[in-house]
Amino acid sequence: MVANDYSDDDEEMVANDDGDDDHDGGIELPSAQRSMFSRMDVSVGASGFPIISKSAITVRCGLNKSTSLQKSIEKIRERITNEKVEISPSAYDTAWVAMVPAREHSSGNPCFPECLDWIIDNQNPDGSWGHQFIVKDSLSCTLACLLALRKWNVGHQQLQKGLEFIRANTWAASDKDQLSPIGFNVVFPTMICHANELDLTLPFDQDLLDSMTRIRDSEINSERNQNLEYFAEGLGESFNWDNILTHQRSNGSLFNSPATTAAAVIHGQDNKCFEYLQSLLIIFKAWVPNTYPLDIYTRLCLIDIIQGLGIGRYFQSEFYSILEETYRLWQLKEEEIFADISCCAMAFRLLRSRGFEVSSDALAPYAEKDHVSLQTAGVGTILELYRASHIRINEEETTLEAINDWTTTFLKEQLLSKTILDKKLEKQVPHNLQ
After folding, report:
1. Coil, strand, or helix at residue 254?
2. What is the rounded distance in angstroms from the CA atom of residue 238 to the CA atom of residue 222?
3. What structural domains does the chain harbor?
4. 336 contact partners, CB below 8 Å, separation of at least 6
5. Is 246's pLDDT higher than 90?
């Protein structure tokens, strides 16, 4: 994890650039549940998901005094023009895919045994799975992996080590001061129930279990939480899995989330969902990322971060190529752009600021903060909408004005209530508001 933003050494190179310097730090990546890592270093946002930081580029690409400017530029250019966006594994999502049974239910065998092998081979030394700097995320990843091992009766040694990790970190499950992945309060208690069904005894006392169950039921029944399908794997058999298929994307997935899609296969045996999972294993062999595909948003993030560093002038042709392709997909109403709020808002902002004709009508669904798709949106997503609302080309753009009004109020309230747990995001919000 990168500890600092770009250094004073870097500033000497970027001080005179006319790039977009109003972005302080990084961009929160969209995701359904867990951490996804690109080929650059990351820190973690308040929602429990990663932020690509400016220092990720400066450190990994050698943007400092010890490396010549031209060599640094070429390294960054290579990153930008690489056609393949490299993604790291998600232990949580891989575990859910590992729990999918073979199509012949009577066989009692896993459909994707290679995922089980990956789980066995990739346990952390402390007995956990996943990225270790968010305890609740590690708990979710570890419990999901234990469920997969227990379900297919493999990896007994890894299972015992995982139980020891959970025993040592039960305190974090109900700690409100700990960063939580989106949906944790719903998914984690449901996985505990699933463990009981598999006769997997977990080290949680009854009072803690009762407390987590009450919180889960409260969130499920809350009128504010209307987007439960985004972490539907936490709803189990009680969920109407036929209804969720109305959200199925053209690639067969649910929200581009392997975990949610795997749960749909487990509970509903949908062929398109199954084919989506198969396609992921063809690409990644033995594991899956937490979101796929994510190419468009990752490339837009690169542009935004590099502009924020103030060195955008060195990469104008590369930026134009990416934005030209993004504009083509925008005109085609590409699902990968429009199905994700952050991606849509960033694409709108970057395209319009570079002179591409894009209508603010694309953001009209988010003109009211009560829109259903905003109910699970994190502060990073709201900040992205706020930034997009400033890119106006007409005197009256009511959609952007409305977005600006409610996002400004929301972000100010978050600062006053001190509910932004991620320190980097906590600095970005007032910086952008000013």
Report:
1. strand
2. 17
3. 8-87+294-433 (1.50.10.130), 91-284 (1.50.10.160)
4. 256, 293, 294, 295, 296, 297, 329, 343
5. no
